[in-house]
Specification:
Elements lengths: L1 H28 L6 H9 L2 H14 L19
Length: 79
């Protein structure tokens, strides 16, 4: 039972690191705010992380329309 728990923990940690790194690369270094995978990962991020990511992208891409998940209901302004 302990071995199964260890394997499960390793998979959860590895998945978190893998998807977390991909999300951070999208937010901090992506070439475009419209990357489909990045938008999806940002949508699954917890509220405070999503908010930080949207603000980071807004400062990196001024004057562009926000991607899905970072836009107000009208889709034209950043959150």
């Amino acid at each position: 039972m302990q071995k199964l728990l260890k394997v499960l923990i390793v998979f959860v940690v590895a998945g978190t690191v893998m998807f977390g790194t991909r999300w951070y690369m999208y937010v901090a270094q992506g070439e475009s705010p419209y990357d489909e995978v990045g938008i999806a990962l940002n949508g699954y991020a917890p509220g405070p992380l999503r908010s930080w990511g949207c603000h980071k992208m807004q400062s990196r891409f001024p004057g562009q329309l926000p991607p899905y998940g970072c836009a107000t209901p009208d889709g034209r302004d950043w959150l």
